[in-house]
Amino acid sequence: MRPLREWLKWLGSFEWQRWAKGVYGAAGIQRLPAFRALLSAAADRWGLDTPVILVRSPGRLNLMGRHIDHRGGFVHPIALPREILLAVQPRNDDLVAIHHTQPTAFPSHLFRFGEVAPPRPMGVDEWERWTRQKATERKLAGWAIYAEAAAATLVNWHAELGIPSVTELRGINAVVDGDIPPEAGLSSSSALFVAFVLALLHRNAVVPLRPSRLSLAELCGYGEWFVGTRGGAGDHAAILLAQHGKALRIGFFPMTVEALPFPDDLCLLVMDSGERAHKASGARREFNLRVAAYEVGMMLWHERFPELRDRLRHLRDATPKRLGSSALTYRLLQALPERISFGELSRALPHRIAELSRLAANCDALSPSEMEHTFTEPRGVCWFGIAECERSERFADALREGDSGQLGELMTLSHDGDRVMRWRDGVSEPFRFPTDDAQLARMEAEGVPMWRQAGSYRCSTPALDFLVDAALRAGALGAQLSGAGLGGCVMALAHRNDAERIAQQVTDAYAKVLGRKLTWFIAEPCDGAEVLSAPPQ
User: Fold this and answer.
1) Would you say 271 and 503 are in contact if contact means Cβ atoms under 8 Å apart?
2) What is the pLDDT of residues 69-115, one digit of tens each?
3) Residues with Cβ < 8 Å from 431, sequence gap 6 or more?
4) How many CB atoms lie under 10 A from the CB of residue 498?
5) What are phi and psi of 82, to 5 degrees?
6) For the domain bounded by 2-61+80-231+526-532, which CATH number is listed?
7) Domain boundaries along the sequence of the chain
8) Torsion (CA) 520, 523, 527, 533 in degrees, nearest 10
9) From residue 406, how far is each of 391, 397, 398 by CA, in Å?
10) What are phi and psi of 420, to 5 degrees?
11) β-strands 256-261, 246-251: how paired?
């Protein structure tokens, strides 16, 4: 650790500039104000002579493979030059005290490990049940829940993390700042969670980490369930493992990582719609309904195709490539209902009532009456997931070959699986990819490749669809929503020389047609999260 005055002196020096360029690329110098704001706030709170470590945890964009990391599909993320920053002071007790540079928006919070810890170390299934119950009882919401989630994760998996005993866990004081737009599909919440995990691990002497960063990412994927959502580990792996100038290719079950070249002449234009999906509250139900549709689809396949149970372990296993038969993939999709309630499912599958009740509870359907009126759409969601898995396979090849046209086409096709509206000349019309039997028969008869079929996940909004269509009209190579959807950002793939022009055209159109202000930034792939014990030289 070094005193805050040394950290402040480091900023803007030649050593700082060299380090920033290596981490962030050409735009590294633009990170200076964010670091200065954090360190100045920490100095105001603790004094210039206080030794601290710094933690940086970037946001991410997933270029391809949306909504499928927890289904075994490949994702292709990069880290962004927008991040969560922590100045961390160790404590000698078990208290965790967190303070934000914007206390009005993000109030300070204090807690002890024992107040958030599970009663005993739990396996994944028991942890899932316990965290779901905790989410229904919890009154706390907002940013502080991610610090509590990190502490609970350390307690539950302390042995795997190399911490001898939970009684030896010690806390931190932390000043937090960040410039990832919250709830915008850039993984600000996971970046915050990872930042707290790294800070608490470093405080508790897990240096170097006993698990690899890959293993840590898997634990983080489970750990964030504490918040109440049920996602995978793709975002955490991206945040922990990203590399400057590379797009990662992350696989699951088992988790694997490959770094692929991102074309030098391309960049990502990130456009914030201004809409927000509150994962810690209302939108959680919609996100979990989509995940439940995947689970329902797999459940029904195992019931109706018992001969395929050993082959269908994850959704990715239902692709034509893995099954070796497009016809079999179409049979699987045809076996799924377009829409079905949890009540109907419970009557059709009485021996699976415990699993169905768990899924329904994740979607806030806690009573028999609520189960009757809570519907999933397994055919459209599974259709999207299968097609997205195939798009993700092609995306990796396009990265290796530097095929920018194919990269853009795949991104745009992927967005159509989430699309709810199509915009032309400022006029919108509803959009839904058909999922009826006639569409299935048509796609099969015409031999349309699965990767070209959008499917129906439907987590976009009219505003996000407008930004995608406006960016494409302005000359973007491809565009799609970012993250889970229901608000947040759109990303557009563009040549570097075109990005600012495209951004301005979309900004003008957004204001003219929807009367909304657009904020945007240009990103290239950056390094992943790290802990800095001393200013790099």
Assistant:
1) yes
2) 889 999 999 999 999 999 999 999 999 999 999 999 999 999 999 99
3) 416, 419, 420, 421, 422, 465
4) 17
5) -135, 135
6) 3.30.230.10
7) 2-61+80-231+526-532
8) -40
9) 10, 9, 6
10) -120, -10
11) antiparallel
